[in-house]
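Lab manual, section 2.4: Encoding a predicted structure.

Procedure: take the sequence of the chain (280 residues), apply the prediction step described in section 2.3, and record the output as structure tokens. A sample record is shown.
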Amino acid sequence: MKYDLHIHTTVSDGKYDKVKLLHYCNQNNIEIVSFADHNVFDDYSEKIDDDYFKTYGKKSGVYVINASELDIVDISQFHLLAYDMKHNEELKKNIFDILVENNNITEQIVRNIYKHYGIKIPLEELYQMSSDGNINKKTIVQWMLNNNYAKTWNEAGYLYTSKYSPCYIKKKGLHLRETIEMIKAGDGYSVFAHPSTIKYSDSELEELVKELSLLGLDGIEVFNSSKTTIEQMNFYLYLAEKYDLLTTCGSDFHNENTASIGINNDISDKFINKVKRRRV
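Recorded output:
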């Protein structure tokens, strides 16, 4: 069975919208997908089916499992996938409140930049650059590059927004324990996304997975085609079996430069079947 449980769309930082991605899946015999956009629950709805029918003259036929990829602040580069939540209002509210706080923090960083460097960044320009009406440190970095105040992304971050900058303020974000609890309370599945990105040793990673399993983590993304080697996948499969976790796989597709859509194995069968049984 071909499937993909980790795809990004234009709702966050992906290149294509859901209708176009579903059409690609139909053309390439991909039966099951999850659109896991960053920090948003843009749930798959009948409107997508209607738009698909209007565009292509038929139903998509692809089985969609709702998902979101959540940024966690406790561990650098840690992401948590939330799947098939039945009730996500509490988590949505937390995400909204954090966005508001981070907009305020970003505006304060802009004031700090003027104080320390004498660079005046018009806030209206930052908000115009935003696709969703929210601004963050990345928006500042991009503005600096656009206006020739830095030559590279790393230089701009280091000077103006990183913890090494005199302008730095720590952003707000979701916390691991509370987020797992909210996903569980919403009758969803929490999955540790692409473990390789947190740069832990094998022993450190095992200790973390053990701790997360005790907190109620449901699964681990054992293969991410843009971030996981075969050796890493085998280790993650070992951890999943040892700590009784579900296993998932996905491409982490954003555009053609990051990965190709589609996974062809049986690693996610148990997880997919659990979701399907809940919908009968």
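Check your result against the sample. The mean pLDDT is 95.
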